[in-house]
Amino acid sequence: MIAGMHALQVIDSHTGGEPTRVVLTGFPDLGSGPLAERRTLLAKNHAAFRAAIVSEPRGSNALVCAILTPPFDPTALAGVLFVNNVGTLGMCGHGMIGLVHTLASTGHIDTGVYRIETPVGMVRVERHEDGSVTVENIESYRLHKAIPLDIPGHGRITGDVAWGGNWFFITEDLPAPLARTNLEVLTAYTTKIRQALEAAEICGEAGALIDHIELQSPSPTPNLDARNFVLCPGMAYDRSPCGTGTSATLACLAQDGRLAPGAIWRQESFVGSVFEASYREGSRGIWPRIRGRAHLIAYARLVIDPADPFAFGIP
Ligand code: PYC
Fold first, then answer.
1. Cβ count near 169 (within 10 Å)
2. Is 242 one of the catalytic residues?
3. Ligand 1 binding residues, C-beta < 6 A
């Protein structure tokens, strides 16, 4: 796969506690086709390289990597492909905030508005004077409302299926409060929801896997609207309030008349970080705006040694 020692230049950040690794150089060439094609190519031909940069021993289950690639649409500043420990993502809100912060911190961009292409559409981003970043995500919408689902050991629950750049099942039926002491209970519960969705063949559009499960509750913190717990596809929970999950939530709130266009929704994560969100109306759903903040944590050169038995991650 590699003849000699291979190096990749990366910058790590976190957005509300959730890590992002921006891959600047060293990832295999993905060609110059549309971003959706490049995502398919990556999934098909470069799973080992993905695992090398995301998985242990160099990464972790919570890490999302943002692989920078030239845009297909020349009006965009850049293209980006998000990957995690089990595959590729359509979009990633915390990762996009991390990417913009990384590009700004390294002098590649200034404050202002830019367009960044993803496999699921164009995202408009704004780097603010105070260092925060607003992501205007792709159009988000609810596909199904109040789907009943039988969860072993918990009984019947209901939840919505919604798109925010990834597919989400969102429920307010909780087995326990969204508190860190309940991490194991919440992980087991959301895992069962995921399994129940698959067993019942409940999917996103075109048979897409619903691979993000979001629990929502009111926040116990004053002035915040909600707290969530999001189980990601690789079975790690999102430390950030989840940009695509917040987008999907906003789509449901908007369709239920629970949040007006332009009104601010303060979404707290499981670890207490906050995104400020709002939306404008779209033709099918809504255009969510998510504002958050990232911090750099490392400049690094990853090396892949062909003699290393775990060069491409621990299987
Ligand atoms: O912020 O959209 C997000 C996200 C998805 C998975 C982890 N974070």
1. 27
2. yes
3. 18, 64, 92-94, 232, 238, 240, 242-244
